[in-house]
Amino acid sequence: MSTPTVVGLDIGGTKTVAALVGADGSVRDRRRAPTPARGGPRAVLDTAARLAAELLPAAGDGPVGVGTAGTVDPATGTIRYATDSLPGWAGTPVADALADRLGRPVRVANDVHAAALGESWAGAGRRDADLLLVAVGTGLGGALVRDGHVDTGARGAAGAVAHLPAPGAERLRCGCGRYGHLEAVASGSGLAAAYAAETGAHVDGRAVAQRARGGDPAAETVLARAGAALGRALAGLVALLDPAVVLLAGGAAEALLPAAAAAYAAELPPAWADVPLRAAALGGDAVAVGAARLALDPYDGGAAASPRRERPT
To answer: Which Pfam families match (predicted)?
Structure first.
């Protein structure tokens, strides 16, 4: 008997990926395209639907899963809040619109929630029913998996670690517009801002990490400071949430992990000394794989919609 497959979609600010995922979590095929910068939500949805449709003939006849930037209403699959990375995305009925385009049910979750689900199913957390994942990219996101399912919270926004108060960040502005939050220190944008303050040079977070690897003292200082702040925050979250493991994902994770691990170990209360902090394993496939898992299990924390002819797209 052939292994069932399902399509998972990753809709991000710069790229959209569709993956054909097996029942074991392995990616069998994928399609990728830039997320349209023009045309608004309709263009983004059209691109996502086109990529998914290319893989659907090889998939089963069940739902399609979606992990997307923004806060997802857990009841409707509509975007409650989104940043400017996807202009006009707030208010978009993603589940409804894609269900109509694809002619089959669609289940939707936040992208970091989906990534955590993917890691829990087929990645670095696959032996752990309870895990905390923190994704460090341009911004900072988090997700909590309980008993193998994402805990979305009452509003679909559980895991927003970006907005934890962080000592030393009182004068630094977070992406939300307020000051003193962890994202202002421990994120790609935070690294870039801190390096600019140290040197006057304006580069992105990836370049800061590269310069640190090349021995740039200012970049090394910035990374050490950011990693320490992140590690201390993670230790506090472990004491609050009691996960079995903490996973660090995202483009800046590798650069921050050494300093974060040291601060995490130093700050972790003795009762949780056996909770490891380790790197996530799925890389760029994590969101699409988690979205596929969402499609396979309706209880994995995503909102669902089925196609209806009278619904506008």
So the answer is: ROK
Find the CATH number of the domain harbouring 81: 3.30.420.40
Look-up: residue for tokens 């993956």?
19
Over residues 210-265, the pLDDT tens digits come to 999 999 999 999 999 999 999 999 999 999 999 999 999 999 999 999 999 999 99
CA–CA separation, 162 vs 184, rounded Å? Answer: 8
Please check whether residues 141 and 235 belong to one and the same domain.
yes
Pairing of the two strands 245-249 and 277-279: parallel
CA distances from 181 to 195, 206, 230, 286 (A): 17, 21, 11, 26
Q: Under a CB-based contact definition with an 8 Å cutoff, are residues 298 and 117 in contact?
A: no
Helix 253-267 to helix 205-213 angle, to the nearest 10 degrees? Answer: 80
Same domain, 60 and 172: no
Record the pTM: 0.93
Q: If you average pLDDT over every residue of the chain, what do you get? A: 93
- Assess whether 139 and 161 both reside in one domain: yes
